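Hi support team,

I'm filing this because I wasn't sure whether my run with S-adenosylmethionine finished correctly. The job status page said complete, but I'd like someone to confirm that the output block is well-formed before I use it downstream. Pasting the exact inputs I used:
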Amino acid sequence: MTADHLGNPKNAAQFNAQSDNIFGRIASRYDVLCDFFSLGIHRLWKRKVARAIAEQEWTTLLDAAAGTGDVILKIAQLNGFKNHQRVIVSDISPEMLAIAKRRANGLFSNLDFQILDAHNLDEILSNSVDLYSISLGLKICDRHRVFKEAMRVLRPGGRFISLEASNIPWAWVHRLYLGYMQLCMPFIGWLATGGDASAYQYLLKGVQGFPTAEKIAFELTQFGYEKVSFERLTFGIVAIHIAHKPQ
Ligand SMILES: C[S@@+](CC[C@H](N)C(=O)[O-])C[C@H]1O[C@@H](n2cnc3c(N)ncnc32)[C@H](O)[C@@H]1O
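And here is everything the job wrote out:
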């Protein structure tokens, strides 16, 4: 796992899918847990990121760490897919992906479900993807490896879009929010997961350890992306970043 000069891990949640199959264990409850943890607001965030993706021109979209397919299904509800569009719906967890597949219910011939590690997308050709998206997955991956691998698979001019935990720009409000998370999350998490502590511990660590929206924008430019922009949602609890691979 890479770390910066201060020793902060680039995997904010310090999660390793190989050593803890947490998403396999909670797959059937994942959507309910999202509602619990975010008080339902994740639906708005995902609708927003789905709209951002739907508004772009693309033929091949790769959604990494797609989980139960929420974002992809929201794009489908917004726009449907055009005949020529192909979506690679990918995740490292077969259990999560199986639910995504079931939810899509064979409706979309455009969807191609693949078990892929976002750190290492060996199966995907370089310069072959128009749009790479990742929602709520960066904090549980080594984000620098993800930025690098996304850059490799994107075609020149292709776009990177992420939705992830972020910072409320007023420091004291952000501290209050983190305090609330620290206090309430173990209780809500314990109840919601039937005592499976790791689900909310990763979430908590990921939220606490994830950098500010400005820092993520800076890191993206360091990895060679250009025209980097971001939008904070719900006061900055999460942010959507959009970046372009140079032509
Ligand atoms: C918090 S969920 C987000 C799911 C979905 N994108 C959403 O917004 O609801 C994180 C997902 O990342 C997946 N994941 C974790 N590590 C991964 C990796 N190295 N490569 C691909 N997916 C990974 C997990 O299996 C899980 O489905």
